[in-house]
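Database export, one record per block. Field names are fixed; values are copied verbatim from the stored entry.
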Amino acid sequence: MRRLLLIVLPLLLLTFVGLHFTGGDRAGRADFVFINQGSAGSLDPNRMSWLQDIRLGYALWEGLYTPDVNTLGAVPGAASGVEITPDGLQYTFHLRPDARWSNGQSVTSGDFIFAWRRMMRVSGNYSYLFNIIAGAKEYSAKIAASQSADFSLVGLRVLDDRTLRVTLDHPLAYFLDLCALPAFFPLHEPSMRPFFDSTSGDFNKLFTRPPHLVTNGAFFLSDWQFKRHLRLQANPYYWDQTAVGCRSIQMQEGEDKLWAFLSYDSGGADWLADASGEIGAQLWRQQRPDLHVFPGFGTYFYSINCGATFADGRTNPLADRRVRQALSLAIDRAVIVQTVTRMGEPQAFSYIPPAAFVNYRPPPGLGYDPARARRLLAEAGYPDGRGFPTLTLIFNNEFHHKDVAEVVQEQWRKNLGVYFELEGQEVKVFRQRLHGKDYAIARASWFGDYNDPSTFMDKYLSGSDNNDAGWKDAEYDRLCAQAERSTDQSQRMRLFYQAEERLLESQPIIPLYHYVNAQLFRSNVTGIPLQPRNLIQLKSVHVAQ
């Protein structure tokens, strides 16, 4: 009884806080209120890579093609269609005559050229994807080397305001899927122009704040209160008004999972995008009808800094792959999924989830073998952990990352005799350190963006801006490049398998578990399909009153 009171009393207090927090918006309650999976990081398509930002991106922008609201297959978006030459090298897109920006101006071919050229000039998380366009890789390389670069040699042509021609370096079966990604969104250069920074050669992030941000999707950004909420209003100029289920949407922000649940449970939110953790596990055991749990399209892992030295100049023992292998082999994932996450997550020894693709099954990975782990650590010069320096494992403060880290910390101490300090950080600081490789080991994850194994494999290409581990392997790069150019699907899957084998053998990442999606929404909310990629098209959501 005492334990029950200790739980219920804080719940009652936080219920009041949650109601107060979600009910104080001067604009009134939005048609649809949701609590995203973490705080918004960036609304710059050049910088988007986190799922919570990408969800918002699809509400605000629309590419030439866009994910179907149910299947997520690429369907016409700002373009009404495309003509593809028989050799698969040339794509001619025709823009819709009624495609407009949120300020009423027409969306033109030049808006796409401007955005895509920026992706080639200013390295972003997905800039490497543009290398498929003829001449783009060479153009980007010259820009990066501060050399003169001729953009006319890139395979992009504006035929007129409504017609855009793209010439590829080689055929790519999933190019239309790429055109549906945030990296390929158009940008409205006139509204961005006042924010150009001549020193950096790019635009100040203030262009993404209201009222400056001009977008071409179903919504525009009307309000952004840091660490509190973002509010979207329906774009009155959007071409497909009949597909828009709500006139206003608000995303609430907060790092506390109990607050998030109470806000939802008290009616302050219609959708809780992530219901994992302690509360989700309890609801799952109770078989609560508004809890929806289904396989995910991502993997939770630890990223290992593979550089020879750390950011502070110290020698990095993790540069030795035997150390990385030992750390991975010493972790019993069953403890994590049974005592921490507890939502039926599969243990992960592979990078790509086993059921992610119909025709691909990943390699088995290293497994759990503490004895082998100790032998490898001794071979690396640290018998029973002696002489191994104290390093730090970092994670962002949200969700159950600390709980997972404590389990791993204890297993490394017990199985290897090595000690890692734990350091939780505010999410934006954490992202900066992860992306800047200013860490030893860091909590990380990856969700696929499109229906091909390359959506996972490309992350660890030597030249990928998303390669936070700094791992480089020429043979891995070669296998992935060969798979990209092949038109034989069976051969492509074999090449990806060989590439993932190399990744798992080298262990720049330690897979821990494969995600399941766990969400809370009631029966009056429609338009949230239960598909592994967990990519919700907010324009399709409708809330029955």
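Remark 1: The two ends are 38 Å apart (CA to CA).
Remark 2: The first strand starts at residue 32 and ends at 35.
End of record.
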